């Protein structure tokens, strides 16, 4: 059984806030840079930052010589955890509503659930866990409202929706692969994944969009922030959470992202606050609590008596 502690809940909350605010910064950055080059810049900056930390810590990755299959898995993870989803989201958000993008990210939890049941030991699909995730997803749908599946009239809207859902699938599959990797340094793993991602995205950006554009100061600051915080630092946290608490627990982040996105958009971009915000938030929190009922009970000490306590009670009664 996965031992989920208060530290795991704190890390998940930080990730939700960090990635929820990322949409605001992406919107600013895309005003001065193209989608493929934004993805390339984010991943490259993140790779440089995490590699520097990793090498400072000794540069060791695996605790034992890796099998060839592990090297193949790392290459696949480099594509699925950063390169492909960044490109797909940046491109897809040009043609879909922000509501649909939010729902597509929330769907990561629903995709992870059956995958973890079959491919991750100890992550069995229970009725409580399934019901909790469904309730949370309904809450996200209420939060986003009617714009989630409304059409914006873009010519490539269908392909934009496919791109967003494909990005969600990438995140779900990468979480499963991260959990199945052998013992590995989380910072080193993050650095390697971002290096692989950069090796893929930079040639694609050159091929699709040509040479990188000249950017102004605001775009440069936004891009640097995206590379260092939601890409590098958050990726290290994500690997740590998945490795220690499991992909199903990690998928709770995807429900928080739309909530923070709406709240921060209201605070900093003067966007309207949905009237159903309170109900949506209540459903999301109820869904998260129901799906992680056992972990919450252990966290607050309401666990079943241990064997030693049970034996002591039996002796007292004799």
Automatic annotation (TrEMBL):
Classification via SUPFAM superfamilies: Multidrug resistance efflux transporter EmrE
Keywords tagged on the record: Membrane, Transmembrane, Transmembrane helix
Keyword Transmembrane helix part of the UniProt annotation: yes
Cellular component terms (Gene Ontology): membrane
Pfam families the UniProt entry points to: EamA
Protein localization: Membrane
Entry-linked InterPro entries: AA-Vitamin_Transporters, EamA_dom, EmrE-like
Chief location of this protein within or outside the cell: membrane
Transmembrane portions of the chain: 9-30, 36-56, 72-92, 98-120, 127-146, 158-178, 190-208, 220-241, 248-270, 276-296
Record membrane topology: Multi-pass membrane protein
Entry superkingdom: Bacteria
EamA domain mapped to chain residues: 10-143, 159-290
Family statement drawn from the similarity comment of this UniProt entry: Belongs to the EamA transporter family.
Protein name: EamA family transporter
Organism of provenance: Parasedimentitalea huanghaiensis
Biological classification of the source: Bacteria, Pseudomonadati, Pseudomonadota, Alphaproteobacteria, Rhodobacterales
């Amino acid at each position: 059984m996965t031992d989920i502690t208060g530290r795991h809940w704190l890390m998940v909350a930080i990730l939700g806030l960090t990635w929820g605010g990322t949409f605001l910064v992406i919107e600013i950055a895309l005003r001065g840079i193209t989608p493929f080059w934004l993805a390339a810049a984010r991943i490259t900056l993140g790779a440089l930052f995490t590699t520097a930390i990793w090498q400072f810590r000794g540069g060791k990755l695996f605790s034992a010589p890796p099998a060839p299959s592990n090297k193949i898995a790392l290459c696949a993870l480099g594509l699925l955890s950063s390169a492909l989803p960044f490109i797909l989201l940046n491109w897809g958000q040009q043609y879909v509503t922000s509501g649909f993008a939010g729902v597509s990210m929330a769907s990561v939890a629903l995709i992870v659930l059956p995958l973890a049941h079959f491919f991750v030991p100890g992550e069995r699909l229970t009725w409580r866990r399934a019901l909790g995730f469904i309730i949370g997803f309904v809450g996200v749908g209420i939060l986003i409202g009617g714009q989630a599946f409304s059409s914006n009239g873009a010519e490539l809207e269908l392909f934009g929706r496919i791109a967003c859902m494909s990005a969600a699938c990438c995140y779900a599959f990468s979480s499963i692969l991260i959990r199945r990797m052998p013992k590995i340094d989380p910072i080193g793993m993050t650095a390697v994944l971002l290096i692989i991602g950069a090796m893929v995205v930079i040639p694609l950006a050159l091929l699709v969009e040509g040479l990188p554009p000249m950017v102004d100061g605001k775009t440069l600051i936004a891009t640097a922030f995206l590379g260092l915080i939601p890409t590098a630092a958050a990726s290290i946290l994500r690997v740590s959470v998945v490795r220690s608490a499991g992909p199903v627990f990690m998928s709770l982040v995807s429900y928080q992202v739309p909530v923070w996105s709406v709240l921060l958009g209201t605070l900093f971009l003067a966007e309207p606050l949905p009237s159903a915000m309170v109900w949506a938030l209540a459903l999301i929190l109820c869904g998260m609590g129901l799906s992680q009922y056992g972990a919450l009970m252990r966290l607050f000490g309401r666990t079943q008596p241990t064997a030693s306590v049970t034996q002591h009670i039996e002796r007292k009664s004799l």
